[in-house]
Amino acid sequence: MQTAMKKLILPLILAFSMPLWGQAGDPEVDSGGVAGAAVSISVLNPCGKNTTTPTTTPNWSASCNQNLTGGNKLFVACVSGSTGASTISDSLGNFTGAAMTLDALTNNLLHGLYTITTGGADTVTITTTSSNAPVCFSLEIQGLPNGVVDQTGTAANQASSTTWTLPSITTLVANEIVIGWGGQNSTNNTFTQGTGYTIPPGTCVSNAAGACGQGSGGNQSGFIEYKIVSSTGSYAPTVTLTAMTGTANTVSYK
Are 63 and 41 in contact, with CB atoms under 8 Å apart? Predict the structure, then answer.
């Protein structure tokens, strides 16, 4: 009897004394052996700008500066005179007829994040309900962990000033990209990026690093700038310009 009990108890003692490493849900296993592995988010490709002033729909069309990569995301933002539904499409068929989010202001803002399923040379087209030519920008983003929106600011009309402070957002996730954009669809201007933000070359006519001027060949002008962050917090991008009124907004993606 005693011998039988020892045979039963010994395996139980060994089972409860074994380490739990490697079980499902352990962070070292789930992160590939590195707890809290760093997330690498990068902007690869601004999809150009149009160099003429459209007068009928579609209102804006531009070829990307370089080939898109399948699996990445494309962020597109516009300052537009449109007050109704607007859509985005592209020559590769990645997001044909996809809706854009509308922020209704004096100069309305449009934005959206779209999945690139097919890579290659691409042309992006924005169709709006207005014959007023919008100014639009786009960024190809790589490495977003979830590829969804975290926070969107409350779009705001900007008073005439040489510095615009864009709507503030408070991020909920550490590793994100914060994007600010804005402008006006009836006045030429030049915008310079805020501290810590990047205006990518190629997003505006005669664009140099850190400066974003006339956006679509007519009297429209605007900017897009971004900052890749690694901690949660409050973010309110700024931009400097020759004093004028306009509209702007901020959004972050995780």
Answer: no
Cα–Cα dist 95/115, whole Å? 8
Give phi and psi for 13, each to the nearest 5: -60, -45
Q: How far apart are CA 140 and CA 142, in angstroms?
A: 7
User: What does the pLDDT look like over 210-242, one tens digit per residue?
Assistant: 566 555 455 678 888 999 999 999 999 999 999
The label of the residue with tokens 């300052």 reads: 79
Whole-number Å distance between alpha carbons of 245 and 68:
34
Does residue 107 carry a pLDDT above 90? no
Alpha-carbon Rg of the chain, whole angstroms? 24
Domain edges within the chain:
42-253
Each residue's pLDDT tens digit, 131-152: 666 788 888 999 999 999 999 9
Residue 25's Cβ-side half-sphere holds a number of Cα atoms within 13 Å equal to 1
DSSP structure string for the chain:
-HHHHHHHHHHHHHHHHS--TT-TT-HHHHTTT-TTPPP--EEEEE-----S---SSS-EEEE-SS-B-TT-EEEEEEEES--S--EEEETT-SSTTEE-EEE-SSSEEEEEEEE--S-BS-EEEEE-S-SSPPEEEEEEEE--SS-SEEEE---EEEEEEEEEEPPPEE-SSSSEEEEEEEEESS----EEEPTT-B--TTSSTT-BTTEE-B-SSSS-EEEEEEEEESS--EE--EEEEEEEEEEEEEEEE-
Residue in 226, 219, 230 with CA at minimum distance from that of residue 166: 226
Q: What are the DSSP calls for 96-114, one per residue?
A: TTEE-EEE-SSSEEEEEEE
- Phi and psi (nearest 5°) for 30? -65, -30
